[in-house]
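Researcher: I'd like a structural prediction for the single chain below. Treat it as a standalone chain; there are no partners to consider.
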Amino acid sequence: IGIASAAEFRVTRLREVPLLRDPYVMVVPAARGDAAADYLHGRTGLPFLRYSKKQLMGRRIEAQLRRLRLDIPAPLEFESTPAILNMVAEGRGWAVTTALNLHCAEAAPERLSVLPFPDAGFVRLLSVFQAEGLPEAVVELFDTALRPLLRSRVIAPAVARCPWLDGEFRLLEEGA
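Model: Treating it as a single chain, here is the predicted structure.
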C-alpha cells in the first residue's frame, strides 16, 4: 500500500483509490505585493526557481507553463521543495509548487506568501495504491486513519492560512 501521484495510465495488479486533490500554487516572498501575473510575465525582477525536469513535479509544471504559452527563464533547477521554499523565504525568487508540498516543507511560513495559480484547474491528484490481495481490513484501517489526519493536520491548516484553498484542496472519494 502506498500513496503517489495518480496514475496517468492504467495500472495493472494494483487498485488505485483517489485520495487528495492538491492544487498548484505560487509561492513568493512575503515582503512583496506583486500579483501572480507579474511573476509569470517576468515583471518582478525575481527569478523563477523551478523543479528539476527529472521529477514528475517539474515536468508537470513545465507542461502547464507551455499550455499557457509562458516561457519563463530559470537558470537553476532544484530537486528539493525545502531548498526552493527556503530560497523564496529569503527573497531570492519565486516558485510553483502544490499546497501539500508547501504544508510539508519547513520554510518560515511568515516569510512566504501563497498566491493562487492563475489556472484553477492545475492540480495534482494523489491516490492510494493497493496491491492485489491486500486484506480489506488493512485497507480500511489505513483509510480510516489517514483521511481524518489529512483533513485535520494538513487541509484545515492550509485553508486557515489561505481561505481561497477551501474546496480546492480536499479529500477525494473513491470513484471521484
